[in-house]
Design a protein that fits this description.
There is one protein chain. This protein is an alpha+beta fold. Helices cover about 25% and strands about 40% of the residues. The chain has a domain at about 30-110: Sandwich (mini-chromosome maintenance (MCM) complex, domain 2), CATH 2.60.320.10. It is built from two helices and seven strands. Strand 3 and strand 4 (about 60-65) form a beta hairpin. It is elongated, with a radius of gyration of 19 Å. About 15% of the residues are buried.
């Protein structure tokens, strides 16, 4: 490797760390858990409530638990159970997805999102 290659790699790594570090300070606490099955909203819960509910997905069942301002899928009858292995979510825009059941659990916030473009 040449000196220029090392400098380029260092600049790319520094930019990546700055981007990821900046996201830590700009993310928004969510306040609503939105559940969709097959693209249709089926439930909406406040994130500050204690909830333990069974969600009927397309072809299966998942268990959603909301506690201490966190939402997580704690049980599922899908074969891979990847949704159960995902970590808890609490920030606006975070999701938990169960593809076999076509289930999406998403965190939303009442705050206005930043505008990053203009549509005409």
């Amino acid at each position: 490797m040449k000196r220029a290659d090392i400098i380029l790699a260092a600049v790319i790594l520094a930019a990546a760390f700055l981007f990821l570090g900046g996201r830590q300070f700009t993310r928004t606490e969510g306040n609503t858990v939105v559940v969709t099955v097959d693209g249709k909203e089926t439930a909406r819960f406040a994130l500050d409530r204690e909830v333990d509910v069974q969600l009927d997905g397309a072809g299966g069942v998942n268990r959603l638990v909301i506690h201490d301002g966190l939402a997580e899928v704690t049980d599922a009858d899908c074969p891979d159970r990847l949704c159960v292995k995902e970590s808890s979510i609490r920030y606006s825009g975070e999701t938990i997805v169960c593809l076999p059941h076509k289930l999406v659990v998403r965190i939303e916030s009442d705050e206005m999102p930043e505008v990053d473009g203009v549509a005409k």
